[in-house]
Amino acid sequence: MMESTLLLIIEIVGTIAFAISGIRLAAAKKFDWFGAYIVGLVTAIGGGTLRDILLDTTPFWMENGWYLAVTGISLAYVIMFRKQLVRLNSTFFFFDTIGLALFVVIGIQKTIAFGYPMWVAVVMGTITGAFGGVVRDILINEVPLIFRKDVYGTTCIAGGLIYWIMIITGASPVIQQLTCAATVILIRLLAVKYNWSIPVLRNN
């Protein structure tokens, strides 16, 4: 019971965080309210949709309409507090990092529940966390963050590997999930503080 409640909380918070991160970027590009809503929605559901298609199951948002409602609430939040959000240059990074961490956990947990091995769960966790951001960046005409020097996709993989280690060591499901999310958040924070980046592939 506790585990299912925790996962529900993680999913709600992750959806809000990713939706706000997408809407915030759409606002910076001067999208209208509908356009910003769409960007926020695909940011929140894009990774999970691809994951569910690969798992051969109905995409999660088609079974529960609250994902659409939560994105609308996130849009209203950005509209009401836009001035405060604009002043905070770290707003996008904060919400994107929280969403990334929580969605990696959700992707891994759901894949395990479908009976796939852990290495598949790590891949699915990465897709769940990162793919929504890929679609978001395409819609706002930016090179997807995962393909730039920023430590992004590799952070998801690191979180997944920690999740795997926690399973091997016999940690409880709650500890597995919290440790995974904390790892993703910590690595992203350290990457910003110490300017960590993935080497750029050069053609000369």
> What structural class is derived from the secondary structure elements?
mainly alpha
How far is the N terminus from the C terminus? 56 Å
Order of helices and strands: HHHHHHHH
User: What share of the residues lie within helices?
Assistant: over 70%
Strand content: under 5%
**Rg estimate, integer Å:** 16 Å
* Structural shape: globular
Describe the protein's architecture and organization:
The chain has 204 residues and is mainly alpha-helical. It is built from eight helices and no strands. α1 packs across α2, α5 crosses α7 and α5 runs antiparallel to α8. The chain starts with a helix and ends in a 10-residue tail after the last helix.
How would you sum up this structure in a few lines?
The chain is built from eight helices and no strands. By secondary structure, it is an all-alpha fold.
Helix-strand blueprint:
Elements: H1 2-28, H2 33-54, H3 66-80, H4 82-87, H5 91-113, H6 118-139, H7 153-168, H8 173-194
Helix pairs in contact: 1-2, 1-3, 1-5, 2-3, 2-6, 5-6, 5-7, 5-8, 6-7, 7-8
Relevant terms:
0% strand; globular; single chain; 204 residues; mainly alpha
